[in-house]
Amino acid sequence: MNIHAKRISDIRKILSEKKLDALLLTQIKDVFYVSGFHQDRTAVLITKNKSFAFIPKMFLEHFKEIASFIDTVVYDNYHESVLSKIKELGLKKTVFDPSFESYTEGKFWVSGGLQECSGILTSLRMIKEGEELENVKTACKIAAKTFKLIKPKIKEGIREVDVAAEMEYLMRKQGAMEKSFDLIIAFGENSALPHHETSTRKLKKNEPVLIDFGCVFGRYCSDMTRTFFYGQPSAEFLKVYSIVDKAQKAGVAGVLAGRKGKDIDAICRDYISASGYGQYFIHGTGHGVGLQIHEEPYINTKGETELREGMIITVEPGIYLYGKFGVRIEDTILVGRKKSVPLTR
Amino acid sequence: MNIHAKRISDIRKILSEKKLDALLLTQIKDVFYVSGFHQDRTAVLITKNKSFAFIPKMFLEHFKEIASFIDTVVYDNYHESVLSKIKELGLKKTVFDPSFESYTEGKFWVSGGLQECSGILTSLRMIKEGEELENVKTACKIAAKTFKLIKPKIKEGIREVDVAAEMEYLMRKQGAMEKSFDLIIAFGENSALPHHETSTRKLKKNEPVLIDFGCVFGRYCSDMTRTFFYGQPSAEFLKVYSIVDKAQKAGVAGVLAGRKGKDIDAICRDYISASGYGQYFIHGTGHGVGLQIHEEPYINTKGETELREGMIITVEPGIYLYGKFGVRIEDTILVGRKKSVPLTR
């Protein structure tokens, strides 16, 4: 059984458990997950014994090449085409994920007899195995190597955007499809903005450098952050760096199947708070990584999802002293039962 | 009046005309349009005389730097924070755009007393002026120059992904923030797939090359496509190329304020049909370009939006002979009253 057939079979088990007739997938990453086909404006309907893709005519031949195991319905009017197929098949309980439909579309599906059901794909997609796991690992290796290659080139006068351009190019040259998100390159006081937007600011002597980046390989993402000091670090920088470093290492060591996201968050947060910087750790500790750069499970104070073997998450505590500097350290981690593995080290 | 104040004032005029009390903006591009702040998880509420941004604590200082003219509400729970502010202000008729909210969120807003109203921002964002117009022009110039720089480097043995990597790097080096979408680099038979995904396929002698690309400058996009033959073109390629070229030129010449999207589509489609290739032009003729690579107005058989001065659209007819080759030619065009201006030439 190939991977897509297995995933469709897993979905059917869930449909059967939940006593549902069919699931409509409309999000591009969900459609890719079950078909290998990655284009917008394509939806897949999975019933107990059949699957149908609704696609524009322009994608038909391409879809057939990639996913011949799914029947195709070429649509002129997408919504009507889906409803008409559901009616034709006599499906009584077809569900869609209300988080991935616009309000306009959700209302249309509901008026057409569909029902809401959240999280079916989320629960499957959280666990990575086989080729997707290898893809994440490769994406992580490319990122880690890129940092090693770029670090010696970061010198006085270089602009944040130059570093971003060089890193994107280096990742591409190693086989990455693209960056996994807009790289955050932050010099000096910009490092105190957790989501700083890479600018034309130039690096000066004796400044911190924060680099948050990742790439996509085989459609799977990596995510890592490194902070270092260019020149002679101040005592305050060294102190803050040491706290974040220890908090991050403790968090990474704490990542084990069976624990919840909020447990990992607490490990990092408690350490930083005990060190007197609690109020400057102003975001969650991490997130799942996969086809999307941010996905379930979320590692924050509200993270109730229990970690399981095969999940991939980030651990990225930080301390941000607005107007001065910030430090964040982040790795992408493969969750294990007895031992978890940082993939970006 | 600065540009953001003007846009907020334009929104208030529409609110007044429609007898509404307030508009909730949640889409990142809409929030940027009125504030200059570009981050997820930030919403803006515009009332008749005030504006409020709802933001996570981690963005607060940054937001204040960029958009001090908007009041800030730091939220712990986003949805409750918005509803509580609406209640506090006693707003009776607050609207949201149902296309930009998930079904889950839309239901929440409706249960909290908000109402649906589509297209307020769409109607404003369609017309480009001042700095945003300059940004599109620069994004187009960078793209056009990049094509000139890359074309001589496209030779036997180069891979599609290599061309993409080099082009992205060239655009970055000219000041682009990033590519405006995943570049489509298609050699040989891949050119017959309108949304081909750039692959590791190598270029051979005597093959067509299709390149669909663009970049982002100052957050505004450009979009263009060129098709050429590497080596000795076949008679069939020359014939098809000539038809698409003439159809595209006729379409571009037809772009004038007062016409509708479907009129432009008909010019291109009729020409290609009359040449005997109608069934191989399997997509719409174009789309608006701005903060998003695809936005209103859409130029297709159903395009009812009347073109107005200051709109920016693409004209991109194509002929796709599956298994053989495809030709698409595309420019980004500034709509004028008496004369429209191709920006990517």
Low-pLDDT residue intervals, each spanning 5 or more residues of chain A: none
Main beta-sheet strand count, sense and barrel state of chain A: 6 strands, mixed
Chain pair sharing the greatest interface: A-B, 41 and 43 residues
Structural class of chain A: alpha+beta
Percent in strands of chain A:
15-25%
CATH class of the largest domain in chain A: Alpha Beta
Helix content of chain A: 25-40%
Quaternary structure annotation: homodimer
The first-to-last residue Cα distance of chain A is 34 Å
Shape of chain A: elongated
Arrangement of strands in the largest sheet of chain A: 4-3-2-1-5-6
Order of helices and strands of chain A: HEHEEHEHEHEHHHEEEEEEHHEEEEEEE
